[in-house]
Amino acid sequence: MTNGAEGAGPGGEEADAWHERLGWAFGLIADDPTEREAALAHLDGARRNAWAALDRRNELWHITRPLGPEEQYQEPAFKRAREVYREMCSRTLPAGLWVGGGADGPLLPYALLFLEWEARFPRAWTEYAKAWGTKQSLIRRMTVADHDQPTRAKLIDLVEIAVRRAYRCKDREYVRVARAVDGEELRHRLGTAAVSDNPWARLHAGYVLWLLDRPEIPNTRHVWRTWVAEASRRQGGSSGPCG
Questions:
Q1: Nearest to 198 by CA among 230, 238, 158, 232
Q2: pTM (two decimals)
Q3: If you count Cβ atoms within 10 Å of the first and of the last residue's Cβ in the chain, which end, N or C, has fewer?
Q4: What CA–CA distances, in Å, run from 195 to 33, 62, 178, 192, 218?
Q5: Domain locations in the chain as residue ranges
Q6: 96: closest CA among 110, 82, 116, 83?
Q7: Cα(120)–Cα(104) distance, integer angstroms
């Protein structure tokens, strides 16, 4: 994935500001292991800075508490400590995504990056930034039909990765994305996965294709388990955990 985070024109300055905070994070999905290690080290340092800022904010909260709610939050030192903590959080993942307001606008490349990191390097993601609720929320924010072509292509990649692996927590949410980016390219990839030698891919891709042809059917645990039971009777196989 190319950076794509810097921009000019309307919103360009904001995009550049977020690139200054989080541009390092593209190293998390680099092909070069050395780049990934450097990015992980940067993330570790950024998190330590955020924790230190949180400690300072909490310390000043206790000191200024006797002032009362209104005066406390106007007290200069405590106000500054809260600002520093927010700034430090904006330089980490996944906290920076929510400090900046979520997955829209200039933060879209970093939301996609966070999902790609989990998809391609799940072990490192789980060790350094495990946040299943954030994964779920970001996926759900991607379920719109008006993405530009590069974003649409990235989402198709993520759906394919999800269906080709053993189930990971919240992977079921990718059905929402599949429905949003449904088209010839996605169906071709799912069709290839559905006839591959990988039993996970056959099961998951078959299920997603089945749902794409039935947009009125909800993607619930009950629907999944019923479909798996029928698929198992037809061809054998096993299902992963579903959550």
A1: 238
A2: 0.88
A3: C
A4: 32, 61, 18, 6, 24
A5: 1-130, 142-243
A6: 110
A7: 22
